[in-house]
């Protein structure tokens, strides 16, 4: 096939473009070449709902993590009197600002980074093209690393008896939870951060959450643990179940659940635009979810849509891949790349 004469070179250009986009531009802003590269701040990475720009380059990710860690240590260790241990200084540390380092082309050669990273992304198969799936998988791995790193730090902070896992006694809900949910142990309306949530995360039931289990506890949307997925579904019901019968009737579904699902739902786009069809759509979806046709949604029946209600890291990894690839297509890079990319 003579379709793609210089696929690899063109693909490098494509990835270089992605790289700029990912590093420096919030989604939906106009792309400008040679914009200064920016690191994300810890605050952005930690704000719930706004943490979903996944770093593309592991070096950048490491910088962000180290910077986060410094801040974390300042916040947590200084207050309890211990100094953080000295670490080996990475080369970029000589720069007063890590951003100066990544913007210094002699030190941080973006073209070279792309060349190094490309074969790591282009793995299934290694054919000189980055596919949608490959980019999603790459994003997902980067995100997963970051999330696990933060969980590890969180465990260090809470693990008072240093046994490497968190017991329910050691666990205290984060401050923002107390503020936003008016956290109250006797309030039955919200189950997050309580013992039932804790128990559901405890896969082996030993009363202590290890790294995997505690990470699941913090990010139940990303879990493979069926007990925790069931808990999450029950929680979705509990929050919306106005008449406390343990399930959702059509009205409860329509007023609180449907609105959330339709944003993600793919088949809503086919009926999109016609306001009157939204009601039909709501009914259709309800019928589809109500597997036992009893006119109510049970926790079990929410399982198929739980990832629409709680998007997982994989969802965001895919979304970011979609975004990047759509930008590349917009900019009209080599058609043979595009057809492969999509
Ligand atoms: C960056 O790397 C590319 C390819 O290896 C090379 O052509 C270019 O001169 C390098 N830029 C700098 C400033 O070293
Ligand atoms: C928690 O809720 C109970 C009753 O629901 C109330 O008496 C108590 O004051 C609340 N505690 C806090 C800290 O808000
Ligand atoms: C959680 O598990 C512990 C130990 O198995 C048990 O004592 C406790 O009652 C459980 N709590 C809830 C809310 O299920
Ligand atoms: C944590 O415990 C679970 C259940 O026993 C196990 O599947 C998982 O591999 C453990 N994770 C780590 C990091 O040890």
From TrEMBL:
Signal peptide: none annotated. GO terms for cellular component: endoplasmic reticulum. PANTHER family: CALCIUM-BINDING EF HAND FAMILY PROTEIN, RETICULOCALBIN. The keyword Transferase does not apply. Residues 195-224, 277-312 form the EF-hand domain. Pfam families: EF-hand_5 (PF13202). The chain crosses the membrane at residues 6-25. GO terms for molecular function: calcium ion binding. InterPro entries: EF-hand-dom_pair (IPR011992), EF_Hand_1_Ca_BS (IPR018247), EF_hand_dom (IPR002048). The keyword Zinc-finger does not apply. This is EF-hand domain-containing protein. SUPFAM superfamilies: EF-hand. It comes from Zingiber officinale. Keywords: Calcium, Membrane, Transmembrane, Transmembrane helix.
